[in-house]
C-alpha cells in the first residue's frame, strides 16, 4: 500500500555517566542483532555516533538519526540513563518516540554488570511528564535483547499510524445527507491531530467526473474490474461509468493532495448522487480502500479518519459498516447457539450497501442498491458490491469528536462468524464478547454514530496505544468490558 509511511526507527542508546558506557554499547549491539534475526532490518537504524550521556551527545545523535531518514525514535536505556539528555532527545525529535530499558543479564554479573535501567525508566517517565513530551512506553518496558526487539516491533504499527496522521489530508465531498447528524462532528480535532481537510461540493466532483468522459484509460480500468468481479459481474453495463468515476477520484487525489503525503476520502453517495451520476459509488469506494486509500460513506469524516488509522496499523484493507441490526433469534438458535461460545446479545450484523473490498468478502456480486431502489429507478442505483464478509478475527473501532469538540474512541475485538447472513449488501454476522453491554454503555451512552470501522484481525492493543499517543484521554477510550467490570452507567440492580 503506497498510501502509508514506511517506518524507520532510530535506536539511540543512552548511559548515565556514573555507569559503565560499555553496558549500553554491548546491550544496544545485542538488541540490534536480535531485531535483525527476527524482523525486517529496514525497520530500524542503529545510531553509531555516540552513546548519549550529555546534552551535546543528544544533539549529535539527533542530527545523525535525522540525516539517516529516521521518522521514529527508540530511546534505549542500556543502564540507568541520563534523565535530562534522554528526555530532551525525545522532546526535540519530530516524530513518534518510544522508551525501553535493558534488563540485567545474569545473577553472575550483578556488581560491575548491573545497569539499573529498571530504576532509570521511572525517572525517564517522570521527566517526560515534566516536559509535556509524548512517548510510547510498552506494557512492561524492561527486557533482554529479544524482549526489547519484540517491543520495538510492536511500536512499528503505532508509529506508522502517528506518522501517517501527521501528513494526512482528508478530502470530502458535500455535506452529510439529511438525517445523518450523527456523522456530522466538529473538524477542530482534525487540526489538533495535525490532519488537513479539504471540503468540496458535490458539484465540483460532478464537473470533474464529466470532464473524464471518454478518458482513454477507461477500457483498461473496466478490464481490471471485470477480472476482479469474475462471475459476480452482474451489471457489466455500469462498469464504464464506474471506471470513469474511479479515475476522477484518483486524479482528484493527485491534483489536490498538496504538500500532504497521504490521503483519505469522505464521499457523498446519496440522495442526489444516483440521479445525477447515474450510479452509486459503493464498488469504487471498495476498490480505493483496497488500494490503501480509505473512502468513507455518507461524508463520514471521522469514519474516514478511523479507517486510515486502521489501515496504517494493520497494513491491510479495512471497511466502514453500520452497527446495523440484531441477529434473529431463530438464526441464533439454528446457526450459533452451541456451536460458538456467544450469547444472543453478543451477536449483531454489520452492514453497508456495498463498500467492502472484494478481498474481504466470501463471495461478491455487482448489484443495485436495494434500499435506494425503493424510491428511485433501479437503473440509477447500480454499483454496489454485495457479499458476506469473510469469517475471522476483527476489531471494531472508531475515533470520534463529540459535539462539544472532545476526542474519544472505542475498540472492541471479536470475530465474523461463518454464518450465512441471508441478507443483502456487504454484510456479516459479528460476535463480540459482552456486545450487549458494550452497545448500551459505550456506544449509546457515549453518543457514537452508527458507523464503525472494521480492521480484519485483532489490533486492539496497537489501536489503544495510538489513541493514547494522539491525545485521547484513557477514560475516553471505551471497550467491551468483561462481566466482572461494571460500567459507570450500568444499573447495579439489573
Uncertain runs are: none
CATH domain class of the largest domain? Alpha Beta
> What's the helical proportion of residues?
25-40%
The CATH superfamily title of the largest domain? L-fucose Isomerase, Chain A, domain 2
CATH architectural type of the largest domain: 3-Layer(aba) Sandwich
Mean pLDDT: 93
Spatial extent as radius of gyration? 25 Å
Number of domains: 2
Shape descriptor reads globular
Number of helices: 15
Q: Major β-sheet, in short?
A: 6 strands, antiparallel, barrel
Number of strands: 18
Query: Strands of the largest sheet, in order across it?
Result: 10-11-16-15-14-17
What does this structure look like?
The chain has 494 residues and is of the alpha/beta class. It is 36% helix and 20% strand. The strands form three sheets. The protein has a six-stranded antiparallel β-barrel with strand order 10-11-16-15-14-17, surrounded by four helices. Strands 2-1-3-4-5 form a five-stranded parallel sheet, sandwiched between helices. The protein is globular and about 80 Å long. The mean pLDDT is 93.
Notable characteristics:
6-stranded antiparallel barrel; 15 helices; Rossmann fold; L-fucose Isomerase, Chain A, domain 2; 5-stranded parallel sheet; globular
Offer a quick outline of the entry.
This protein has 494 residues and is α/β, with parallel strands linked by helices.
Amino acid at each position: 500500500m503506497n498510501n502509508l509511511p514506511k517506518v524507520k526507527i532510530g535506536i539511540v542508546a543512552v548511559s548515565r555517566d556514573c555507569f559503565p558506557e560499555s553496558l549500553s554499547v554491548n546491550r544496544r549491539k545485542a538488541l540490534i542483532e536480535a531485531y535483525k534475526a527476527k524482523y525486517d532490518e529496514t525497520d530500524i537504524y542503529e545510531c553509531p555516533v555516540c552513546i548519549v550521556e550529555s546534552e551535546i551527545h543528544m544533539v549529535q545523535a539527533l542530527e545523525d538519526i535525522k540525516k539517516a531518514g529516521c521518522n521514529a525514535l527508540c530511546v534505549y536505556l542500556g543502564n540507568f540513563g541520563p534523565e535530562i539528555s534522554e528526555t530532551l532527545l525525545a522532546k526535540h525529535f519530530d516524530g513518534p518516540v518510544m522508551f525501553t530499558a535493558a534488563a540485567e543479564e545474569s545473577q553472575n554479573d550483578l556488581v560491575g554488570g548491573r545497569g539499573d535501567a529498571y530504576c532509570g525508566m521511572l525517572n525517564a517517565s517522570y521527566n517526560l511528564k515534566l516536559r509535556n513530551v509524548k512517548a510510547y512506553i510498552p506494557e512492561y518496558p524492561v527486557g533482554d535483547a529479544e524482549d526489547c526487539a519484540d517491543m520495538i516491533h510492536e511500536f512499528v504499527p503505532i508509529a506508522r499510524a502517528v506518522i501517517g496522521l501527521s501528513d494526512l489530508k482528508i478530502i470530502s465531498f458535500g455535506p452529510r445527507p439529511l438525517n445523518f447528524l450523527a456523522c456530522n462532528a466538529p473538524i477542530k480535532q482534525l487540526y489538533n491531530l495535525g490532519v488537513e481537510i479539504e471540503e468540496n461540493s458535490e458539484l465540483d466532483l460532478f464537473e470533474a467526473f464529466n470532464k473524464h468522459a471518454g478518458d482513454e484509460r477507461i477500457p483498461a480500468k473496466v478490464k481490471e474490474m471485470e477480472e476482479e468481479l469474475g462471475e459476480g459481474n452482474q451489471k457489466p453495463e455500469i462498469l464504464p461509468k464506474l471506471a470513469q468515476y474511479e479515475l476522477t477520484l484518483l486524479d482528484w487525489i493527485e491534483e489536490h493532495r498538496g504538500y500532504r503525503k497521504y490521503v483519505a476520502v469522505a464521499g457523498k453517495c446519496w440522495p442526489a448522487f444516483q440521479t445525477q451520476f447515474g450510479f452509486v459509488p459503493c464498488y469504487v469506494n471498495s476498490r480505493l480502500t483496497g488500494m490503501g486509500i480509505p473512502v468513507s460513506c455518507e461524508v463520514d469524516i471521522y469514519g474516514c479518519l478511523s479507517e486510515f488509522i486502521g489501515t496504517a496499523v494493520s497494513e491491510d484493507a479495512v471497511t466502514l459498516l453500520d452497527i446495523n441490526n440484531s441477529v434473529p433469534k431463530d438464526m441464533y438458535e439454528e446457526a450459533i447457539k452451541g456451536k460458538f461460545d456467544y450469547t444472543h446479545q453478543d451477536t449483531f450484523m454489520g452492514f453497508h450497501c456495498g463498500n467492502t473490498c472484494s478481498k474481504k468478502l466470501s463471495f461478491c456480486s455487482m448489484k443495485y442498491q436495494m434500499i435506494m431502489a425503493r424510491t428511485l429507478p433501479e437503473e440509477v442505483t447500480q454499483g454496489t458490491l454485495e457479499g458476506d464478509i469473510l469469517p475471522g478475527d476483527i476489531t471494531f473501532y472508531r475515533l470520534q469528536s463529540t459535539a462539544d469538540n472532545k476526542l474519544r474512541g472505542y475498540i472492541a475485538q471479536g470475530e465474523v462468524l461463518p454464518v450465512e447472513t441471508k441478507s443483502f449488501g456487504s454484510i456479516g454476522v459479528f460476535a463480540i464478547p459482552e456486545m450487549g453491554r458494550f452497545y448500551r454503555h459505550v456506544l449509546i451512552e457515549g453518543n457514537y454514530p452508527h458507523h464503525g470501522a472494521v480492521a480484519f484481525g485483532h489490533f486492539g492493543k496497537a489501536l489503544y496505544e495510538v489513541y493514547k499517543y494522539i491525545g485521547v484521554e484513557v477514560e475516553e477510550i471505551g471497550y467491551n468490558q468483561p462481566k466482572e467490570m461494571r460500567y459507570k452507567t450500568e444499573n447495579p440492580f439489573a
